[in-house]
Amino acid sequence: MDLDLLYPEVADLRRRARRRLPHFAWEYLDSATGDESTRARNEAALDAVTLNTAIFGGKIEPDFTTTLMGREQALPFGMAPVGMSGLIWRNAEPILARLADETGIPYGLSTVATRTPEELAQHIGNQGWFQLYPPGDGEIRRDLLKRAKDSGFHTLILTVDVPVASRRERQRRARLSNPMRITPRVLAEVAMRPAWALAMSTNGIPKLATLEKYAKVDANLPSTAHVGYLLRTAPDWGYLDVLRTEWDGKLVVKGVTDAADAKACEKAGADAVWVTNHSGRQFAAGRATADFLPEVRAATKLPVIFDSGVRSGTDILRAIALGADFVMLGKAFHYGLAAFGAKGAAHVVHILREQMIADMGQMGISKPVQARDRLPSLAK
Ligand SMILES: Cc1cc2nc3c(=O)[nH]c(=O)nc-3n(C[C@H](O)[C@H](O)[C@H](O)COP(=O)(O)O)c2cc1C
């Protein structure tokens, strides 16, 4: 099957993913919180970014390589951490880790993944980032950091935008609970999705593999992203200071939405800030990420990573034009996985790259960062 012909954009993969996932798994992947208006604003704000084209630019040889925190990346985008990936598709974490390694882009492994850092060590090559939901217990935190480091994860992502659980009404209505109850309704939803059911049947019930070790939490049950709550604390600035002394690799603060916070992260010794609103999964009254990205960019010299609402290569170029150094995607790779397994995730990389090539030709630029010269406000 020619995926490029039949599924030329991420939206096509999303539609197929919806048809292939049981309702509860789809709602887990696709939902935001409240009326989901933050999610809608994220997408609308990106849509609203226009860039100038250029003529007589000659032939363009696209060069996507970029250096981020001292490491060369083959493309200006990577895979954001997604908890319970294994609920979306069988072996999601190893599949994505291998794809990241082969492609030369980072992969973020979530604290609440269904595979451990130790299990991923053989797949991830040099592209492993480990995402930390901040445990309140120092001993558990230090153990997690050691496990990540020993498994070859060189960059730590501290996620700070989940100080409390959000309500995620769509997930509630889909009966995603913690612990999840295997009701007749859940079984019926699974029965209606044979490809998913078959794949899962050889893999066992997805569980919070990394946390199992510490678990007073019942790690044996699939659940929403909130299941890590027993380990998770609401960090203050002191927490960042402590983490900075405990982790000697690169440290990224994920969840920055404000210029002053970005400055404070820089002062505290962070190596990058990650502009995101968790794709609208935490707060329905949040500003669109594309709206505050330029403010954060102007406030700090640190690399700025960006996500939330990115669905195309065009969106990646828009974010870079607004000041992002690097762009991450969460749902898109999982739409690909749910649509076509490993092939679908790889197809997402292909789509994003091809879209950027087409756009860069229009803009007459050979490097994505030159999109900054194409913002209309800079037009001569
Ligand atoms: C199903 C799902 C689970 C997520 N789990 C985590 C997580 O465990 N840790 C984390 O830092 N962010 C998590 N995120 C947020 C992503 O890392 C990322 O910020 C977001 O998905 C980017 O928006 P996008 O999905 O529109 O690309 C999750 C997002 C989704 C959709």
Write a structural description.
By secondary structure, this protein is of the alpha/beta class. The chain has a single domain, classed as Aldolase class I (TIM Barrel, Alpha-Beta Barrel). It contains 16 helices and ten strands. The strands form two sheets. The protein has an eight-stranded parallel sheet with strand order 3-10-9-8-7-6-5-4. Strands 1-2 form a two-stranded antiparallel sheet. Helix 15 links the parallel strand 9 and strand 10. About 2% of the residues have low confidence. The site of flavin mononucleotide has 23 residues, from helix 3 and helix 16.
Q: Helices, strands, pairings?
A:
Elements: H1 3-6, H2 10-20, H3 23-30, H4 37-47, E1 66-68, E2 71-73, E3 77-79, H5 85-88, H6 92-103, E4 107-109, H7 117-124, E5 128-132, H8 138-150, E6 155-159, H9 169-173, H10 184-191, H11 194-201, H12 237-246, E7 250-256, H13 259-267, E8 272-275, H14 289-299, E9 304-306, H15 313-321, E10 326-329, H16 331-363
Parallel strand pairs: 3-10, 4-5, 5-6, 6-7, 7-8, 8-9, 9-10
Antiparallel strand pairs: 1-2
The structure holds flavin mononucleotide.
